[in-house]
Structures are given as C-alpha cells and as structure tokens.
Amino acid sequence: MSTPTASTSTIRYAAVTFDCPEPAELARFYGEALGLPVVYSSDDFVMLGQEGSAGLGFSRLADYRRPTWPDPSQEKRAHLDFGVDDLDAAQARLLALGAVEPASQPQPDRWRVLLDPAGHPFCISTLV
C-alpha cells in the first residue's frame, strides 16, 4: 500500500464570508467603510475585493439570527478588527454608514466595539 503524497498546490487566504439576511446591504456597508468594490454579485452572495487581495463575502442565510453580543444567547462566531487613526472620527463615520454602537464597551479608550447592519460585532482600534 502506498502512502499518499502531499500536493504542491499553494493554499492562499482568499476571503472571510459572513452569513446575513441581506448580502447587498451588508456589502454596501463594508464596501463604503473600507473602499472595496464589488467583484461578484448575485441575489444570494456578494464579494468585495481588490485584484490580488483577500476579500469579504456576504452570503444570504434564510434563517439568519443576529448575534446578541455581549449576551451569549446568540453568540458571535468571529469578528473583524480594523485599524484606525482616530477612534472618534472612525466611529462617527461608521455610525453614519449604518453601524450601531452597543451599550457595552470593554475598553473604549483603546478600542470600540460596533455592530454592522446585520448585527456582527467588529472592533476599531488605534493599536492595530
């Protein structure tokens, strides 16, 4: 019996994809926030990205339930962290785009937690 050999194929990080109820709405929010164009779009999936860079995907999930962070009854599965130059200015811009500020802020002088339009928590920080 022969031993399987490892493939020489390169594995690349391509994207993070978020489940959500409305892919176009969530793609608009992140596209405007990060300056990323839509590279693929259908009724059920939208991908943002740049040539040669990893992207962000948004996939429709019919029974999507918003995370309830910090309440663990509907936990988040992952979150994004974004580096910013000015916490207050970045927060104001993201809120204007449709983010929501939850009441709980673990260390607001170091980083801020916001919720995207589908309820996914994400952080902004001058430390990243």
How would you characterize this protein structure?
- With 128 residues, the protein is an alpha/beta fold.
- It has 2 domains: 14-63, 2,3-Dihydroxybiphenyl 1,2-Dioxygenase, domain 1, CATH 3.10.180.10; 65-128, 2,3-Dihydroxybiphenyl 1,2-Dioxygenase, domain 1.
- Helix content is 18%, strand content 27%.
- The protein has 2 helices and 7 strands.
- The strands form 2 sheets. A 4-stranded mixed β-sheet has the order 1-4-3-2, covered by helices on one side. A 3-stranded mixed β-sheet has the order 5-7-6, with helices on one face.
- A hairpin with a 5-residue loop joins strand 6 and strand 7 (121-125).
- The model has no long low-confidence stretch (mean pLDDT 89).
Blueprint of the fold:
Blueprint lengths: L14 E6 L2 H12 L3 E4 L3 E4 L6 E6 L19 E4 L3 H11 L13 E5 L5 E5 L3
Parallel strand pairs: 1-4, 5-7
Antiparallel strand pairs: 2-3, 3-4, 6-7
